[in-house]
Design goal:
The chain is mostly helical. It has one domain. Helix content is 79%, strand content 0%. The protein is globular.
């Protein structure tokens, strides 16, 4: 498959940007476009560094099921846990953009590695589909960590984010032993569930809390 890596990059970025655009509806006034853009780019860079580390430490074997989720979620936590994001509702939105940027790099990387290893076009397609599930999971955990930073409960939500991401690395590990197609489907389904929960149950809390704040001000 003679496709330039630069072209492959957009295969991950475009779906991530579409998801970002859709998920930001209803949050006007809760974020700054510039910071959304910067956190998305920061996510791409952090994701790329994370992948390089994982690539060079792939020899850890089964330990990667636990170690890689810790590494990836720590990268996002380091970026989100800066003073300007502490206690701010908009941090949750920036966690979304950071996570989508972080996840977008996994699609081109997975396709390139599969191609290098001699995968056929159908297998490459399945890997690309499964990578979409990873984008969803990275976004969901980004939202979770960001909510923890906003509520000053970063450690608690970091732990949960690591925990919910372990099934992803476990599924990837199993691809060496079982039919890839079924496992890629599992990644997408699991990612959709996690993304739905993060965007429909966690993110809306900043809207609800804002309404409660306005009501209390009026009562005073």
């Amino acid at each position: 498959m003679d496709v330039l890596p630069q072209t492959l990059l957009f295969i991950g970025i475009i779906p991530a940007l579409v998801l970002l655009f859709i998920s930001l509806k209803g949050y006007d006034g809760y974020y700054k476009d510039k910071i959304v853009f910067l956190t998305f780019i920061a996510g791409i860079i952090a994701g790329f560094i994370s992948i390089l580390i994982e690539w060079f430490t792939a020899g850890v074997g089964i330990w990667f099921i636990i170690l890689f989720p810790i590494l990836e979620q720590l990268f996002k936590t380091i970026i989100l846990n800066i003073s300007m994001f502490h206690g701010k509702k908009e941090t949750v939105v920036y966690g979304l953009s950071l996570g989508l940027g972080f996840g977008s790099i996994f699609t081109p990387f997975s396709i390139i590695i599969t191609n290098i290893q001699g995968g056929d076009n159908f297998l490459i397609l399945l890997v690309a589909i499964g990578s979409f599930g990873i984008i969803l999971m990275q976004a969901a955990t980004g939202i979770g960590i960001a909510y923890g930073v906003y509520k000053y409960k970063m450690r608690k939500y970091l732990f949960f984010s690591i925990l919910v991401y372990i099934p992803v690395t476990f599924t990837i590990f199993l691809t060496s032993y079982y039919e890839v197609g079924h496992l890629q489907s599992i990644l997408v389904i699991y990612g959709l569930i996690a993304y739905w929960y993060a965007t429909k149950k966690i993110m809306p809390r900043i809207l609800e809390e804002n309404k409660k704040g306005k009501k209390s001000i009026k009562q005073k």
